[in-house]
């Protein structure tokens, strides 16, 4: 394969008006972190044992899992020397936001994903000091392997509806776990089927004949020596999926399975030896792991989109298609304004959610520290923000990844492009860890409450403070700040209408039916609030992150921010016409401004995706490699097909030849 850089892609990089390395360092929170990340990636990804001799897509379902386990064990051993970076879930998480090593090794996810992503955080967040001392070290050292079992066959986002029971037996000081129905079986947890031997199980607690709500239990499900399921434990895999086929998603049922009393994670709520239940001062503290995961998900979605945008931008720079003018050669696809319209918003959105993820992570750390001091004032706000950002990032990023795939034409349909896999990975986020519509309704409930509080003169949380401003809409302001304020007015207007409809419906029907009847308006109000929040965060973070940056980089990022804001103003013109003083002339001006911004971003487009600094192993794309030799790589990937290992397949002599001669 040619090792030279594609001439068109090379030319694109010479056009870049800013220092790409400077932006990479900002994304990594400093050049020292960039150096550490690169050294770790180079060391680990150079190990030939972590590479697949046969491409994963040509393996059977069983072979894929077994190969993933092999690589997961090797990867952990390699990562041990980087333990502070790989396993710290607090101080080093921002560093890990840029750690994409696992995606270079597992195309469909690691079977240990939930061990690190949910099992360990659940012990840290919900265990007592004694429980953390007993279990956390074993989990980090991989002496036990765990997962997080919450979702059931019949219930997912509605946690209060979970059917798994944990009934306390005071005489033996044990909990008895049962799955009373088929729909009570835990369903979906990664690693549950054949990998984990422990899991955190969310179950309805019963003690002294009373239901005490959902609590978390640390349950051993397999023997540590033989790995056989323990008595009263039923395990298995749920089968093939759209993606994540190496994550080993499983099902789990209980039949009178007993665990000691100290296996209930009792940081927030306790069951005493005699069965007395001591409730948490804040019942929502038990959902701390879910909030943590939703915060991390925002970064995951942005990373998927960043990879897709990198692939599509690089391919669009090297692909030449049709003639814009007669008697001239075919032009780069990226020179078509329609292609810029498809792709530049994907680049801007990936940055918007990257910065949003980092911002909300800092808030999560602060709220967690406050909670350790007994202060839970900002927990409701964090919950709403995590829900809002999870919904918007998953919906926007999955939609734009598909847009990137389509922008690559037929080659985007091949698995060798990696775009179908990225879409499948990202679209799953729309339903896991809280289905998006349900989460929007949770956000709406908090917004309605805040609306009523503001009406009574109460002070709202910082991210909702704008809801208190009921002043009339002023004249249209086309500045970035002015457009963001207009989006806040859209949010206020939609929420006001939803609240009015809710009150009108409540006079005719039960509160529950009234809520259901108003739900379409409520999710629209919640989405509008989320959109206003993301726009505000992106602007604030660009300004803060670029404060000490060079003038060139600051100018490019300001243009990217402006493009993002103007794009959404054009997408939401209907809302802005209704709730802000946007005129027909203003819409035309926005369109011209958007087209100008596309041309401003154009010279820096490849530089903006290069700044993400994805190694070719991470992108895993024939279309998006750094050298731009897409056609050579496509051919090389095609030749890896098992069908190309022999000139004549056996089916010719067995079926085709007799068929063609009428002798079948």
Write structural notes for this entry.
The chain contains 23 helices and 11 strands. Strand 5 (198-207) and strand 6 form a beta hairpin. The chain has helices at residues 7-15, 20-27, 31-45, 61-79, 83-87, 93-96, 101-105, 113-126, 129-140, 288-318, 337-372, 379-407, 419-428, 436-455, 480-506, 511-545, 551-571, 573-579, 584-601, 605-610, 616-619, 630-638, 650-660, and strands at residues 146-149, 165-169, 174-178, 186-187, 198-207, 210-220, 233-237, 250-254, 257-260, 270-271, 277-278. It is 53% helix and 8% strand. Mean pLDDT is 93; it is low at 85-91. The chain has 2 domains: 9-27 and 287-458 and 481-636, Butyryl-CoA Dehydrogenase, subunit A, domain 3; 144-280, Butyryl-CoA Dehydrogenase, subunit A, domain 2 (Beta Barrel). The strands form 3 sheets. Strands 1, 2, 3, 5, 6 and 9 form a 6-stranded mixed β-sheet that branches. It has a 3-stranded antiparallel β-sheet with strand order 4-8-7, with no helix packed on it. 44% of the residues are buried. It has 664 residues and is of the alpha+beta class.
Compute the gyration radius: what is it? Answer: 27 Å
Shape: globular
Low-pLDDT parts are: 85-91
Total number of domains:
2
Just give the CATH class of the largest domain: Mainly Alpha
**What is the CA–CA distance across the termini?**
43 Å
Approximate helicity band: 40-55%
The CATH topology label of the largest domain is Butyryl-CoA Dehydrogenase, subunit A, domain 3
CATH architecture of the largest domain: Up-down Bundle
